[in-house]
Amino acid sequence: MNRFNDLRQKMNSEYRETIQRRYYTVTGENPNEKILDNLIATGESETFLQKAIQEQGRGQVMDTIMEIQEMHDAVKEMEKNMRELHQVFMDMAVLVQGRGSN
């Protein structure tokens, strides 16, 4: 019976630590004992964390979209520069070819 109680206490402790880590990950703050007790007692920890992650996820998605757009714009600019450089080489080839026939 003692082993069962020890195991139960260990599981409760680990669950509490898990909720504490998740809360910190989502909010950036360590929860106080009252908040932890409330989240565990009401069973709202998963709902709270899912909502917070979804809200935070939207911001991350928007940041990622902006980052992708910036990379896309940079690639388009590089492509334009490559075309201009290609044209310079083509013009130089015509000039060199023209001097060679003179």
UniProtKB/TrEMBL annotation:
Location of the T-SNARE coiled-coil homology domain: 65-102
InterPro entries: SNARE, Syntaxin_N, T_SNARE_dom
Pfam families (UniProt xref): Syntaxin
Keyword match Cytoplasm: no
Keyword Transport belongs to the record: yes
Membrane spanning residue stretches: none
Keyword vocabulary terms for this entry: Protein transport, Transport
GO terms for biological process, alphabetical: protein transport
Protein name: Syntaxin
Organism: Abeliophyllum distichum
